[in-house]
């Protein structure tokens, strides 16, 4: 292998964006991906040309990001406003009104500057009597499902930062879906020939050895 200046581990959103920037800058690099596909936590499934894509991972564009929307515009990727309806099922599907308001009441109690961090599980126990049981149950499901986090492991400070307001808005809308699925946002990076050549699938990184040049 010829001399490589940078090794990027993982062809998810961050890895692909980094590789794209390096390719444009003329820096030599290799992009190692353990799976046989790009995308990381982004995985879109489609079953036909006229069916809506199903997202098995990330699905929203949160807030207006100049870099991200510049990428969409450059690659002519359309996007839609996200409708904000929430259906829940016990015996039958029912719409749950004031979904975000319920979550935000609990979010406001999160402290991103606690001197001693604690798990979200401990945080919820400390506020057990402050909110209705249904709201606490909804909040647990949201953290475990949407955030894909273990309540015993995720810290209150980290969640407080994660739950901070999304940056900016576009036409007063703060959440969007890429038309055709989120995967299109990332596959657009592979149009770059340099990046595509540097991308190596099924390369599992087990150890990283590094030392500062003398």
What tags apply to this protein structure?
single chain; 214 residues; alpha/beta; FAD/NAD(P)-binding domain; 2 domains; three-stranded parallel β-sheet; three-stranded antiparallel β-sheet; 8 helices
How far is the N terminus from the C terminus? 23 Å
Number of domains: 2
Secondary-structure element sequence? EHEEEEHEEEHHHHEHHE
**Outline type:** globular
- Look up the CATH topology of the largest domain: FAD/NAD(P)-binding domain
By DSSP, the count of extended strands is 10
Number of helices: 8
> Sheet bearing the most strands, described?
3 strands, parallel
Question: Strand arrangement, largest sheet?
Answer: 1-2-10
Estimate what percentage of residues fall within beta strands. 5-15%
Mean pLDDT: 90
Classified by CATH, the class of the largest domain is Alpha Beta
Query: Structural class given helices, strands, pairing?
Result: alpha/beta
CATH architecture of the largest domain: 3-Layer(bba) Sandwich
The stretches of 5 or more residues where confidence is low (pLDDT under 50) are none
Helical percentage: 25-40%
CATH homologous superfamily descriptor of the largest domain = FAD/NAD(P)-binding domain
Radius of gyration: 21 Å
């Amino acid at each position: 292998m010829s001399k490589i200046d940078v090794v990027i581990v993982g062809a998810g959103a961050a890895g692909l964006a980094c590789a794209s920037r390096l390719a444009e800058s003329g820096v030599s690099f290799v992009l190692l991906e353990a799976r046989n596909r790009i995308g990381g936590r982004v995985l879109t499934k489609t079953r036909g040309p006229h069916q809506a894509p199903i997202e098995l991972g990330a699905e929203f564009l949160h807030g207006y990001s100049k870099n991200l929307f510049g990428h969409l515009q450059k690659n002519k990727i359309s996007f839609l406003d996200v409708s904000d309806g929430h259906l829940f099922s016990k015996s039958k599907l029912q719409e749950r009104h004031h979904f975000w308001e319920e979550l935000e009441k609990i979010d406001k109690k999160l402290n991103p500057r606690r001197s001693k961090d604690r798990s979200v599980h401990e945080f919820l126990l400390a506020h057990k009597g402050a909110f209705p049981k249904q709201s606490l149950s909804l909040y647990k499901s949201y953290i475990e499902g949407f955030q894909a986090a273990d309540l015993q492991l995720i810290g209150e400070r980290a969640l407080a930062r994660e739950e901070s307001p999304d940056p900016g808005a576009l036409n007063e809308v703060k959440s969007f879906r890429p038309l055709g699925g989120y995967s299109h946002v990332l596959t657009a990076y592979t149009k770059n020939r340099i990046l595509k050549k540097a991308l190596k699938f099924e390369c599992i990184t087990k150890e990283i050895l590094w030392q500062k040049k003398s």
